[in-house]
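Quick one, probably user error.
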């Protein structure tokens, strides 16, 4: 095993383990999205755009069980994309996977638009609301009319007691995952200073402004929520 693969494996292990502590329903989330895509896409060949594909979990969750789906993943982090590539190679999926390093603007002009898209655990890393809107608008412009889109993001009103209670729930996941109270208190401080939380209503408004309809929240665990909608 080369040193690079060993390092990749360590990153994969740490990322995957922590994602499942932070979001105990992480695997169920991917299963739910797969069900909805399947119901929408039917049996035909379909192209799926994955925004924030680093980590490779969309590809590993949906690739082996949906042999007619072709994936294009885009991510500005080379390290995260390496994880995605590593997993796709291990599962022999690379013939159906294209990985693009960079922002979503790096997507090549395509002859045809995508049949479905996801943007999972990405939006809260973008501070500026106009930048969030721009990302959602670009995703919409790359989708066929009526195509399903799934957004999953940290969500909540910073000034609300509800977010405070949700953070306490989130802390309990990490306590059970082996962290102590001082560590989880620090983690809460860190995410409040680094993640961009928006209230649910504002996220839904951004989706509508970007050109999506039938916006439906289908998922919440701790501080993360998910919406399914369709390109107009
Ligand atoms: C927490 S990971 C989520 C990865 C994957 N979607 C999952 O659920 O396992 C967030 C990813 O979003 C990527 N990211 C950050 N800003 C982005 C942007 N503006 N456009 C696309 N991806 C972005 C990061 O590089 C990182 O790989």
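Nope, works fine. Designed sequence:
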């Amino acid at each position: 095993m080369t040193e690079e693969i060993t390092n990749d494996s360590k990153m994969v292990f740490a990322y995957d383990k922590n994602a499942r502590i932070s979001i105990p329903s992480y695997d169920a989330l991917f299963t739910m999205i797969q069900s909805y895509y399947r119901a929408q896409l039917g049996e035909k060949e379909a192209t799926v755009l994955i925004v924030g594909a680093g980590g490779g979990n969309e590809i590993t969750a949906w690739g082996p069980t949906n042999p007619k789906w072709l994936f294009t993943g885009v991510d500005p982090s080379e390290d995260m994309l390496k994880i995605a590539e590593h997993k796709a190679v291990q599962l022999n999926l690379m013939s159906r996977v294209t990985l693009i390093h960079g922002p979503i603007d790096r997507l090549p002009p395509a002859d045809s638009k995508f049949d479905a898209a996801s943007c999972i655990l990405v939006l809260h890393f973008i501070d500026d609301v106009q930048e969030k809107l721009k990302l959602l608008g670009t995703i919409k412009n790359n989708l066929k009319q009526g195509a399903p889109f799934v957004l999953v993001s940290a969500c909540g009103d910073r000034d609300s007691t509800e977010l405070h209670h949700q953070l306490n729930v989130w802390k309990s996941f990490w306590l059970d995952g082996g962290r102590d109270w001082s560590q989880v208190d620090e983690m809460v401080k860190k995410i409040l200073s680094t993640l961009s939380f928006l209230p649910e209503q504002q996220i839904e408004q951004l989706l509508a402004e970007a050109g999506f309809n039938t916006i439906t929240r289908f998922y919440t665990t701790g501080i993360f929520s998910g919406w399914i909608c369709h390109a107009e």
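The beta strands are 46-51, 69-75, 97-101, 116-120, 148-154, 212-221, 224-231.
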